[in-house]
Write a structure and sequence with these properties.
Largest sheet: 5 strands, antiparallel
Order of helices and strands: EEEEEEEHEHHEEEEEH
Number of helices: 4
Radius of gyration: 25 Å
Helix content: 40-55%
Strand content: 25-35%
Structural class: alpha+beta
């Protein structure tokens, strides 16, 4: 009798979300990339894969009884694709029952150095800043060549109001994040930490997973303290905002109304209408 054919090798699976987040399954390893950090999770460290809310895939690691399991999450709007990935992980992981000893799955996770593509994306803000600076100097030179001293003065002062508009935009993003997190966010205490990679705030979510947020994160605090209250999105813990006093929030809103709107109007006039006026009117 002929021997049965060998089992076919599972095809690699890769899901993407956003600009840099992706998760893949290949050669017995779940590879999860979040921003500039890539983790290699062997299937021997996986307790189960599940989808609790239809759009979030959770990779739950093994752990000793009585301890909180480390959970990694990947969010996508394609529920059917997430279900395929979940089933593939559960089918490929080693079979276990309630009596099988568990190892600490977190100790088996390998953090890999950031990939070249991610580093290039991290350099893009500097490239955009350089391009903006060159365009600004070219516009200033145009005003002097046209011989319009008032336009040159407006253009020079426009750099100040543009910086104010950028700052106001960051405040608006922070306020909007706090509004979206108000109903579903989880409030925890974050601790200030100075590490080799820089200054961070560190907090642990309700599943026992530790997260670090750099001081320059989008919704920054009005002051830096050893500890502060942080609200985070349980589906995407990297979306976090500090809990600000009502007086600080009111002062931010007042600043936007009194200073942000006039700065925006003047900036639009200088960088959109003024070149047209100097060249064609």
């Amino acid at each position: 009798m002929k021997n049965p054919p060998p089992a076919s090798r599972p095809q690699p699976l890769t899901l993407r979300s956003g600009r840099s987040d992706r998760i893949s399954l290949e050669d017995g390893v779940v590879s999860l990339t979040r921003g500039a950090v890539r983790r290699r999770i062997p299937l021997t460290a996986v307790e189960e894969a599940r989808i609790p809310d239809g759009r979030t895939l959770e990779i739950v690691l093994t752990t000793a009884p009585g301890r909180a399991a480390t959970t990694y999450r990947f969010t996508s709007r394609y529920a059917a694709t997430l279900a395929v990935f979940r089933d593939a992980v559960n089918a490929a992981r080693p079979p276990r029952d309630a009596h099988t000893p568990r190892v600490d799955g977190d100790s088996l996770v390998e953090v890999v150095a950031p990939e070249t593509g991610v580093r290039l994306r991290d350099d893009m803000p500097r490239v955009r800043l350089l391009i903006g600076f060159v365009v600004y100097l070219a516009g200033l030179a145009l005003m002097f060549v046209a011989g319009d001293a008032d336009a040159a003065l407006y253009w020079a002062f426009g750099a100040v109001t543009l910086a104010g508009v950028v700052g106001a935009f960051e405040i608006v993003k922070g306020l909007w994040l706090r509004i979206t997190l108000r109903g579903r966010g989880v409030v925890v205490t974050a601790t200030y930490e100075h590490s080799a990679d820089g200054k961070d705030y560190r907090f642990t979510d309700t599943h026992g997973v530790e997260h670090r947020i750099p001081i320059g994160f989008m919704a920054k605090s009005h002051e830096y303290r050893e500890q502060m209250q942080v609200t985070y999105d349980p589906g995407r813990p990297e979306r976090a905002a500090t809990v600000l006093p009502l007086t600080v929030t009111l002062s931010q809103v007042s600043g936007l109304v009194l200073l942000g709107i006039p700065a925006l109007a003047f900036t639009l006039y200088v960088f959109l209408y003024l070149p047209v006026e100097v060249l064609f009117l």
